[in-house]
Design goal:
This protein is mainly α. It has one domain: NusB-like (N-utilizing Substance Protein B Homolog, Chain A), CATH 1.10.940. Helices cover about 65% and strands about 0% of the residues. α1 packs across α2 and α5 (about 95-110) runs antiparallel to α6 (about 115-130). The longest helix has 21 residues, at about 15-35. The protein is globular and about 40 Å long. It starts with 16 loop residues before the first helix and ends with a helix. The relative contact order is 0.14.
Length: about 160
Amino acid sequence: MSRTPGNPQQGGKKSSPAARRKARRFAVQAIYQWQLAGANLAAIEAEFRTDNDMSKVDLEYFHDILHGVPREKSELDAKIEKLLDRRLDELTPVELAILRLGAYEMVHRLDVPYKVVINESVELAKTFGATDGHKYVNGILDKLAQRDRMVEIRGPRK
């Protein structure tokens, strides 16, 4: 479980937001592939690293998400399912992959602000999802943030 910040990239540098965004973009595609084909995660990761230009991608973050989502699938699905207006299996595979990724970050990557998790997931839904899928993703992850990130949402008391 990754509740602490990920290791900085090589050379002691902290990962840039753009490198993380690219990691999420590849991770959601890899998770989608895993959901549909059930292929071995190591094989999927190797395929993505071979077939794509990963030079500006936070590879540690990509690895964490790609392996973390399947590892925590039962927990993530239970959290998501409580917030849905339909059954989990009625979601499109793209929406499900994005919601799992967003839920994983919301629950297991506390180093990522909840607003970033929501915004990045919405952007993924705009890119890969159905026409209004981003609105649905936004609503579900906002509700999840209300449950799992209340301390962060309320902020420090003055």
